[in-house]
Design goal:
globular, alpha/beta, 2 domains, Rossmann fold, 14 strands, 35% helix, 4-stranded antiparallel beta sheet, 6-stranded mixed beta sheet, Alpha-Beta Plaits
Amino acid sequence: MSNVLLSLSHLNKRYGNYIASNDISVDIPQGKIFGLLGPNGAGKTTLIRMITRITLPDSGTILFNGQPMTEKDTARIGYMPEERGLYKKMKVLEQLLYLGRLKGLSRHDAMQKIKYWLQKFEIESWALKTIDELSKGMSQKVQFIATILHEPELLILDEPFSGLDPINSRLIEEEIHALSKSGKSIIFSTHRMEQVEEICDTIMLVNKGQKILEGDVQELKQRFKQHKFLVRYSGQLPDSFAANFNVVSRDEHEAIVFYEGADHNAILRFLVQQNVSVNEFKEILPGIGDIFIQSIQSQSAAI
């Protein structure tokens, strides 16, 4: 089992009568990609601000590598906010050097790392351009480099793919996976559920300041499954198929079947015995987007 890098325990934060964080606890393992999900105003930003010590919790504890988190630990965090924080009139090279020095790098080490990342992202020719001369996608690359330049143990990425075309999105995604494999822990916050399924190992869903769901992505998909199976076939389904199984929908070469039995291969065996040519047979698992909506609706109905 992975070591826990960051542990949040019973975090509470209130602004006047507004409860931004209500008794939230979660462990974030080393070397894993952790999805922080929730609708607008759910409390995600408050959690990130407490982790980065922009604000402190009213109560509760935050442990970093098993020790109470201090101001010094923020140097071991890389934070890429949704609202980008680059100085528009500053040149790319100067800006990256400045931010690298702020995180404790020597000038020599910062320059070496900047050169490496500019070449890797194929933007070295833009080093002497100011940020306001760059496209949104190009400035996004610079922001990402600034976030990882000092090789932090924990990365917090808030909508890191905003403004990127598919090619550059894939490039950044590959780097995120590489950083995870190297042992970095990553908190990934986004509204795009398809990215969560592609990238995250585990997720936590928050709403109205409360944690309402947490777990491994694949385990959650199994937990929320609805016992539906897709059958794609050639030829005709026999009339006896609908008599033996609960057919939810059906067209010329495809059927969706509801089946709660432990041995779902019974569907496949029946079709083979009836000489139906089966081209595809699989269980339909819900997407993280479906789980997200169902969980939010369940919380609202319970209030």
